[in-house]
Design brief:
- The longest helix is centred in the first third of the chain and has 18 residues.
- Among the domains are: 139 residues, Tetratricopeptide repeat domain (Serine Threonine Protein Phosphatase 5, Tetratricopeptide repeat), CATH 1.25.40.10; 63 residues, no CATH class.
- Strands 1-2 form a two-stranded parallel ribbon.
- The protein starts with a helix and ends with a helix.
- The protein is an all-alpha fold and 340 residues long.
């Protein structure tokens, strides 16, 4: 259900399109006048809209930052109900009609996750493409991930590399995790462990205190507004330090990054921690590799890996800890890996 305010705004924009279609010569009003700051009441806003509609004044939508920010708050706040989320989506659509490119990306996110609208991955990809073509780097990263993994589209790893590389050149931190995958595995580019490590280090730097404590202008130009922890990059960086792959061995730093990658509720892709980091830590404590043997900790990490259906964790628990696999572990393992 749309709010009265949203309906009025849509009515004003419809009037604007009609006036432009008639090639009328009329005055212009910025959106900041259409949507005053929060201290103005809805009644005052509606009065402005009524005046616009009565006088046939078209609206130039060129001040929509606040509109889009308000939409994000309504859509992604845990306190928003379904009506508020729907209003947020409507505001995003209005922002997109004004040509506000970040709105294209967020509309794509809504369709991808089914936020305020029915989930529609193809429609999400359409919006991500619109945003990427306009230079929106977050959308480039999303598209790159879809092409890399074959999510709702055919795999195209060369295209994935191109998108990650382009977003990385725009200083988008999230792009570097994908670029690191590509350099590590020679996807769309020559295999280069050193470049892969460099990318993973950049992908983790928004988490580092020395970056987070800097002001935006002091972050070496890297964008972190929409950054989330990347446990994959943290895991790969940990493995690189431990094995000396593309970087000088440093096992204490390797353990540090593996433990970072094992944390929960830090990365929406790995809410229970990165499964390979959990399994690696289990093996280290089980065999006493680079750390003192600790069977309790080994079991702890194996259980967490098994809970995500990882066959190695299930096997180690069954073989060495006399722990019978839970039915849901086996079902999840078969669903992800095909068999156990």
């Amino acid at each position: 259900m749309k709010t009265k305010r949203t309906q009025k705004i849509e009515g004003a924009l419809k009037k604007l399109r009609e006036i432009h279609a008639q090639n009328s010569s009329v005055a212009y009003m910025e959106l900041s006048a259409l949507l005053p700051p929060a201290q103005y009441s809805d009644e005052q806003i509606i009065k402005v809209l009524d005046t616009i509609e009565e006088e046939g004044i078209p609206i130039v939508v060129d001040d929509v930052d606040n509109l889009c920010e308000r939409a994000e708050e309504l859509l992604f706040s845990p306190d928003s109900d379904q009506y508020q989320k729907r209003e947020g989506f409507d505001l995003l659509k209005l922002s997109s009609e004004g040509g506000y490119i970040p709105a294209f990306y967020f509309i794509g996110l809504c369709f991808w996750g089914g936020v305020a609208v029915e989930m529609n991955r193809k429609e999400a990809l359409r919006w991500f493409n619109k945003a990427a073509k306009k230079g929106q780097s977050d959308a480039m990263v999303r598209l790159g991930e879809c092409y890399y993994l074959g999510l709702s589209t055919r795999k195209n790893k060369n295209k994935a590399f191109e998108l990650f590389d382009k977003a990385a050149r725009l200083k988008n931190l999230n792009a570097f995790k994908g670029l690191g995958w590509c350099y590590e595995n020679g996807i769309g580019c020559p295999e280069d462990p050193s470049k892969a490590v460099k990318c993973f280090k950049i992908a983790t730097q928004a988490y580092r205190r020395d970056v987070l404590n800097l002001t935006p202008s002091e972050k070496n130009g890297y964008r972190v507004e929409h950054y989330s922890r990347c446990l994959l990059a943290e895991y790969r960086l940990g493995e690189a330090y431990i094995n000396g792959n593309g970087i000088k061995k440093n096992r204490s730093l390797g353990m540090k990054w593996l433990k970072c990658a094992s944390e929960t509720d830090k990365d929406p892709l790995y809410p229970k921690g990165h499964v390979m980091a959990l399994y690696s830590l289990g093996n280290m404590y089980f065999y006493g590799s680079f750390v003192e043997k600790n069977m309790a900790l080994a079991k702890h990490y194996y259980v967490r890996a098994a809970e995500q259906g990882y066959p190695g964790g299930i096997y180690m628990l069954e073989e060495f800890f006399n722990t019978k696999p839970k039915k849901k572990w086996i079902e999840l393992c078969e669903d992800i890996y095909g068999s156990y």
